[in-house]
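In keeping with the milestone schedule agreed at the kick-off meeting, the structural modelling team has produced records for the first pair of proteins. Each record is given below as a sequence line and a structure-token line. The laboratory manager (R.T.) confirmed that both were archived under the project's standard naming scheme.
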Amino acid sequence: MRSFGGYVWADSPLHRAPAAAKLAGLVAGAVLVLAVRGPITLAVVLVAIAALGTVSRVGWRCLIAPLWGMRWFLLVIVALNALLFSSEEPLFSLGPLHLTVPGIERGLWIAARTCLVVVLGAMLTATTTPQQVVDGVRDLLRPLARLGVPTETVALAVGVTAQFVPTLLRESQQLMRAQELRCGGFAARGIMRRAVSYVRLLVPVFVCAVRRADELSRAMEARGYRVDGQRGTTRERGRS
């Protein structure tokens, strides 16, 4: 089993399933997770997602890896809900901040839902290549083409985004390692020092994103790619 970007090479029913069906399943699964209102229902959804993850054969380490990168975001969600959700019978108060049990429960509930949706998204990217994602989006939006919706442009944008995200993540990790080797910014203790290090990382990451976008646009222009409004397909001018 070998990984390339977000895709994991394996032979499973999810890998062989049509991309359009998996995209529709992702949307339906996200709506179902957000509609959960009780711990029993949440447990049922968790078991179903665990079964899908086992069937996918991509490994749980790959599926839950994005959660580690979101740990500070999830912590902020829990903290904001715990401190700002309610002011009744607080466990601790400091000015406008009130730590309450309902707030903690609400924060953990939202964080749990977010984690499940992220795992579903990771399962899609791990079992579907970027080109299959483009084809799936195109198939799902095909009925809207009769209404004048530029479905091919939307599918191309989704495909470019799906390929850009893993690339930018890899470059961000390389920049973080380089900064650690030079000055140990991310390894330094203290939340403020870490925050400053992450802020310094934004500029080179933005420059890398702009450079990648410019290189991609130049490459597509050199190869004569265009969106054909009549056929709704992306092709090379030399072959049209």
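The second protein of the pair:
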Amino acid sequence: MGKAIILMMDSFGIGGAPDAAQYNDKGANTFGNIAKANLGLNIPNLVKLGLAKAAENACGQAPQIGIQDIAQLSLPSKYGHAKELSRAKDTTSGHWEMAGIPVLQEWGYFPKSEPSFPHELISSICQRAGISGILGNRAASGTKIIEELGETHIKTGMPIFYTSVDSCLQIAAHEKYFGLQKLYDLCQIAFEEVRPYKIARVIARPFIGESSTDFVRTGNRHDYSVAPFAPTLLDKLKARKHSVIALGKISDIFAGQGISKKVPASGLEELWNKTLQEISAAPDNSLIFTNFVDFDMVYGHRRDVKGYARALEYFDKRLPEIAGVLQADDIVFITADHGNDPTYTGTDHTREQVPVIMFGKHVKPADIGQRQTFADIAQTIAEYFNIEPFEYGTSFLKD
């Protein structure tokens, strides 16, 4: 038996969610709208693997990508598109569902109206952390609120609290003037305090810079997440003595559960470099799971259409390198956890279908069509490794 590799393109939706209107996301299409705005988008390897066909089948409209260069990756692939069962469009729900456990209960959310956080919650956090108060206290774009309040934060020492459409409390603070460990300690306290509110994550958002003109978030982000409510694919594999290698923020998303090895990395280049290293070094019967967060964090939330397009082209350019480290029986999946259409209103995630692509040297080519849940990926990997199936999902290993 070989290895399974998941390349998770954070936020790369392909439109067509049948329930998008319920989330005020009708017409959202991350891939399609990026392609429309960037005529000449050059992603020949993803197209060769079936991405464009999967996108067209998902939303009924072919992406406007034009003529592509000759693909350098020619491994056979299956391709399809999956809708989400989970009742959200957030990172945690998307990842847990593709790992076999759709989130069918409701998360707690903080309101977008100001103030977002209850007075008693903030008072308790401040008292335990020994801080005089907070800044922000509303729904906001992380980069914008840091630009707006960062200088005041440095002067007062008060951290910046904000939320989003996700079930989360985010805390931004300066690495030098506030301190990275102090920020982590504060987030741990906040994570303990928000438990009664059924919040999925508290996110530490450290930044550096001296003024609003040069503040930038660093790669030292850390997510404090609730643990999965049932055994995931990762848990089941680790229990069977398989290696589960988590790159980027995967370990945080699963609260460290089911992880054999955590590999810190940030930025597309470093994530690709370390993913290739881990594939080369990992023993058979391993799962390598990488989250390419820049698509979401750097480009989607910032509504940077051109930057998102260039990131897609970089991802595509690195894909052929994977052929050189794959063994005969290894299988690779390309998918996403939700959408984040940078042409859409606001700065939040968008409810979309996601691509489901599987390739490898011995994969039988097929159009696997509409998948009813992201959990089909977990079910397929479970069959591949001959472990017990999940309640949700249908394997497409032999389709």
